[in-house]
Amino acid sequence: MQDVLIIGGGVIGMMTAWQLAEAGCSVTLVERRRCGEEASWAGGGIVSPLYPWRYSEPVSSLSRYAEHEYPQLAARLFEETGIDPEYRQKGLLYLRVDDGDRAFDWARRLGKPLEAVGADFIYAKEPWLAEGIESGLWMPTLGSIRNPRLCQALRARLMALPGVTLEEGLTVEGVCLEKGRVTGVETSRGRLAAGQVVLCGGAWSGVLLDRLGVALPVHPVKGQMMLFRTPPMAEGRQLLERVVLADGRYLIPRGDGRVLIGSTLEEADFDKTPTGDARESLRQSALAMLPALADCAIEHHWAGLRPAAPDGIPFIGELPKTRGLFVNAGHYRNGLVLAPAASRLVVDMMLRRPPLIDPAPYAPSVMPKTPLNPCN
Asked: Which of 28, 95, 124, 269 could be joined to 246 by an S-S link, Cβ 3.0–4.6 Å?
């Protein structure tokens, strides 16, 4: 039985722990707060890149696998924990798309259902959208998941597994190395030994590796979002029932009728403070798509930090010259989207199984800054 330590209790860290435990590994997951309270909680939950035809093949490969896995993953978590992650596959309406030819080329190549639709179709699906919409694109297979509940379900599943130990409220201060091999981590409460370590620290991954003298090009990008509480509508409908995307902003309906609007893109280092300017910008974007939200209460406004990497391609794999130290970070806006695939890929590599997806495009590209500084 292998002993594995995972740094970071977001969706990717928790899915990695789940898969390793089911493969017979002894797993310790270390999270500085409570599992699922950072970017995994703060996102929207669309189970696809926003405009999937604009992404490179490495991201698309992970996305295709994950999109296929999410329905059964959500159903299994509901059955095993009693917590419903609320996977909904009700499609997405794209409004004001300026590269439709590229979108249809992508859809034909991958066999994805995508169609051009007119006003009658759009308002039959979503009657309370703003007036004047004449056309759009419709992707009927797109799904969404309620990510805070997904996090709750994953945490509950891990707590029920005998091979998993959750260490929450614990800060990792360094990674311990001996002769080029990882031996554990140094934490705020002492050293934890491990034969393998997986860094799933999101936007903070580069900070921790910097302490090892390794530069991993992952940095935080702030995103702010809001949630509206909506009233019941006629005939048992919700004010919004499908994801709607326009001009880079999206509305996501929840099963209880709430509607989420997202999101901003801000370079603000590690500042997660919600701002008044962003609140008003999000509100105006929401009203431009769904005017009835003007009469709905804003229930919550928050910010999270996305882990951005060059070209939007995450780093997944073992760090060069550091045996047993793996990284799974840099998923930018698609951490939740890619989580089932990204966690499966790193687990395949750790267990020396034939990888389901070619790992080459995700190989960590790091630059030594100073000699590695192992724990003493």
From this structure: 95
Q: Name the 3-class secondary structure at 362.
A: helix
Q: Residues 212, 372: contact at Cβ < 8 Å?
A: yes
Instruction: Give the contacts of 57 (CB within 8 A, at least 6 positions apart).
Output: 361
Peptide bond before residue 135 is cis, with ω within 30 degrees of 0: no
| Both structure tokens of 253 | 């309906």
Q: What is the pLDDT along the chain (376 residues), one digit of tens a residue?
A: 469 999 999 999 999 999 999 999 999 999 999 999 999 999 999 999 999 999 999 999 999 999 999 999 999 999 999 999 999 999 999 999 999 999 999 999 999 999 999 999 999 999 999 999 999 999 999 999 999 999 999 999 999 999 999 999 999 999 999 999 999 999 999 999 999 999 999 999 999 898 878 889 999 999 999 999 999 888 788 999 999 999 999 999 999 999 999 999 999 999 999 999 999 999 999 999 999 999 999 999 999 999 999 989 999 999 988 999 999 999 999 999 999 999 999 999 999 999 989 999 999 976 555 444 456 5
Q: How many C-beta neighbours within 10 Å does residue 292 have?
A: 17
- Residue 56, phi-psi category: left (phi > 0), alpha (psi -120 to 50), beta (remainder): beta
Dist. CA 83–CA 309, nearest whole Å: 33
pTM across the whole model: 0.95
Rounded distance, CA 254 to CA 5, Å?
34
CA-based nearest residue to 29, from 209, 183, 185, 152: 185
- Which residues, 6+ apart, have CB-to-CB distance to 328 below 8 Å? 12, 13, 16, 198, 199, 200, 314, 315, 316, 342, 343, 346
Which residue, chain included where needed, has tokens 């995103």? Answer: 223
SS percent in the chain: helix, strand, coil, step 5: 35, 30, 35
List the 190-193 sheet strands across, edge first: 172-178, 181-187, 190-193
Note the Cα 69 to chain centre separation in Å: 14
